[in-house]
Amino acid sequence: MKHLSTRILLTWMILLFIVPAPMVLMLSTTLPTLYLHNMVGIQLGVIAYSWMLAAMYLGTRPRWVDRSVGLPHVYVVHGVMGLMAITLTVLHRQLSPSSGWIKRTGDWALILFIALAVWSCMFMAGWLTSRLRWLELLKHWLEHLARHELSVWLHRLNLIAVVLVFIHVQLINYIASQRIFMAARCLD
Predict the structure, then answer these.
(1) Residues 88, 43: Cα–Cα separation, whole Å
(2) What's the CA gap between 100 and 23, in Å, rounded?
């Protein structure tokens, strides 16, 4: 990331601002006034969901993105967006309390996302293990138990976490009742 080109900056701007914008705007104009006190927390959840979907899409290594910004940059954007989405999800959880199955599905998804992020940072982000000697030793010790293929398969558990988030949102009546928002969310 020493040389940031216009394409890379444009990619970041699109992913950070343009991708979540339609859902954020749509929800902010249709949210019932009863829930306006939770607006920031809800919006953070929407942005986190959009960013996680974008990060997962980048993880599929779309050829057109690879050609425009390069695979190393795609991996960096993929990882950073995933971590930023998890951070926003933690804030969403704090600012928008829930209960019952809504809370359970959201918490399960968050736990899965965090566990997979920790695993991925250790096994798939060489920049971190090269800077922390104790983490590098732990990684080498665990590599005997878990090959790279296992890390790739574990990484795919993010799909289950996204399904849990999908169920989480379906269970929220005031959000699920907004048909236009729900349709846009499925298209995102």
Answers:
(1) 10
(2) 25
From CA 13, how far away is CA 6, in angstroms rounded? Answer: 10
For residue 14, give both structure tokens. Answer: 């699109």
CA distances from 113 to 19, 90, 143, 152 (A): 20, 11, 21, 14
What is the per-residue pLDDT across 106-164, written as a single tens digit (0 to 9) for each? 999 999 999 999 888 877 777 777 788 888 888 878 777 777 677 778 888 889 999 99
Place of tokens 């949102």: 169
If one counts every other C-beta atom within 10 angstroms of the C-beta of residue 182, the result is 14
pTM (2 d.p.): 0.82
State phi, psi for 40 to the nearest 5 degrees. -65, -45
What is the identity of the amino acid at 93? Answer: R
